[in-house]
């Protein structure tokens, strides 16, 4: 499909620079396949679900993967986005034209890395020096990797250390938050449990590639970046039982959805999974694992807007976004949410 079909105009003032407080006070737009939209708040979610429904959350934890350093006199910025092994990470580099294979880059707090390899997509492999885990080095030298549409308008600060983590964050390795889950609080989870709504967790370490624009003119020519994920066998078994009982599996966030779909066969059975996924979901895709999606509002011409258009239909999502813009919904990572029930 032509990528420009997924374009739309978003006024800059609709981009949220801070999250709603409290988190579950964010607005929630309920969307069915047809009919009127529901303008609600996240705290209303239990009333929108049925007993026996199960929400699936991503328990990845964002690491301080943004680094500012120098190679000699040249300033080098690095955003780590995928672990290769204990000492090496793949990274997007700012001012990459000043970097050569074998160069050493000095970051704050005595952290050093060697530029080992340049990849076809322009990213680099950085090999970090020393014996300490890279995550320990990042705690000393790194900062939270806020999306460019926020970081370009204000500096990262102390509040982002907690604001940009979900209440489920446990498995370190993401460089972007699974933002749909940022709206959840212990109070909301208690209300969902009282309603009889269950929940499960999986892990998908979200990479910085999620923010990259689609540069191809046709979706068939776009290459997705790999992200590592895991679904435990007992989680897969319980989710299969939910669907077998006629209840709904609802992904919280596109990251949860993408991993569930990656782990599900043509037979509709969700299986244990551990490895990379490059799944790219566009209109025409047949969903196998999920019955709904809770997600924030996404960028124009992004792979995530293509995904929600695959779930609900492109014309329907164009109408959804026109409504959200007209009604003052806040967009992107710190913005409001939608519940899509096809």
Short characterization:
One of its GO terms (molecular function) is S-adenosylmethionine:tRNA ribosyltransferase-isomerase activity. The protein is an alpha/beta fold. It has helices spanning 45-48, 134-141, 148-151, 160-163, 186-195, 233-244, 254-262, 303-312, 314-326; strands spanning 27-32, 38-41, 54-58, 60-62, 66-71, 74-83, 88-94, 104-107, 111-118, 124-128, 171-174, 198-204, 227-231, 249-252, 273-277, 292-296, 337-341.
Distance from N terminus to C terminus (CA atoms, Å) equals: 21 Å
CATH names the topology of the largest domain as QueA-like
Helix segment tally: 9
How confident overall, as mean pLDDT? 95
Tell me about the largest β-sheet.
9 strands, mixed
For the record, the CATH class of the largest domain is: Alpha Beta
Total count of strands: 17
Low-pLDDT parts are: none
| Rg value | 20 Å
- What's the shape? globular
Based on helices, strands and strand pairing, what is the structural class? alpha/beta
Please state how the strands of the largest beta sheet are arranged side by side.
Answer: 2-1-17-16-14-3-12-13-15
CATH superfamily of the largest domain: QueA-like
What is the N-to-C succession of helices and strands?
Answer: EEHEEEEEEEEHHHEHEEHEHEEHHE
Which percent bin holds the helix content? Answer: 10-25%
Fraction of residues in β-strands: 25-35%
CATH architecture assignment of the largest domain: 3-Layer(aba) Sandwich
How many distinct domains?
2
SSE blueprint and pairings:
Elements: E1 27-32, E2 38-41, H1 45-48, E3 54-58, E4 60-62, E5 66-71, E6 74-83, E7 88-94, E8 104-107, E9 111-118, E10 124-128, H2 134-141, H3 148-151, H4 160-163, E11 171-174, H5 186-195, E12 198-204, E13 227-231, H6 233-244, E14 249-252, H7 254-262, E15 273-277, E16 292-296, H8 303-312, H9 314-326, E17 337-341
Parallel strand pairs: 1-17, 3-12, 3-14, 4-11, 14-16
Antiparallel strand pairs: 1-2, 5-6, 6-7, 7-10, 8-9, 9-10, 12-13, 13-15, 16-17
Enzyme class: transferase
Subunit structure: Monomer.
GO molecular function: S-adenosylmethionine:tRNA ribosyltransferase-isomerase activity
């Amino acid at each position: 499909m032509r990528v420009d079909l997924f374009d739309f105009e978003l006024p800059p003032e609709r981009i949220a620079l801070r999250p709603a407080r409290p988190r579950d006070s964010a607005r929630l737009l309920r969307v069915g396949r047809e009919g009127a939209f529901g303008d609600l708040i996240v705290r209303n979610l239990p009333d929108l679900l049925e007993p026996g429904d199960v929400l699936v959350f991503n328990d990845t934890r964002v690491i301080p993967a943004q680094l500012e350093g120098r190679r000699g006199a040249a300033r080098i910025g690095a955003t780590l986005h995928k672990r290769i092994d204990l000492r090496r990470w793949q990274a997007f580099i700012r001012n990459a034209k000043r970097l050569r294979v074998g160069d050493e880059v000095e970051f704050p707090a005595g952290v050093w890395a060697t530029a080992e390899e340049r990849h076809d997509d322009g990213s680099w492999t950085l090999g970090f020096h020393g014996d300490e885990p890279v995550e320990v080095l990042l705690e000393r030298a790194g900062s939270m990797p806020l999306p460019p549409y926020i970081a370009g308008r204000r500096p990262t600060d102390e509040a982002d250390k907690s604001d940009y983590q979900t209440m489920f964050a446990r498995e370190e390795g993401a460089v972007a938050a699974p933002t749909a889950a940022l709206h959840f609080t212990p109070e909301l989870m208690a209300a969902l449990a009282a309603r009889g709504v269950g929940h499960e967790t999986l892990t998908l370490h979200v990479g910085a590639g999620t923010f990259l624009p689609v540069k191809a003119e046709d979706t068939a020519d776009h290459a997705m970046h790999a992200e590592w994920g895991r679904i435990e066998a007992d989680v897969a078994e319980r989710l299969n039982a939910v669907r077998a009982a006629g209840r709904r599996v609802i992904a919280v966030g596109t990251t949860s959805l993408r991993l569930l779909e990656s782990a599900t066969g043509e037979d509709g059975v969700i299986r244990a999974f551990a490895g990379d996924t490059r799944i790219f979901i566009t209109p025409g895709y047949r969903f196998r694992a999920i019955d709904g999606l809770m997600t924030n509002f996404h960028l124009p011409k992004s792979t995530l807007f293509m995904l929600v258009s695959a779930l609900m239909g492109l014309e329907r999502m164009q109408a959804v976004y026109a409504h959200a813009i007209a009604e003052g919904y806040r967009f992107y990572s710190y913005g409001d949410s939608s519940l899509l029930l096809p």
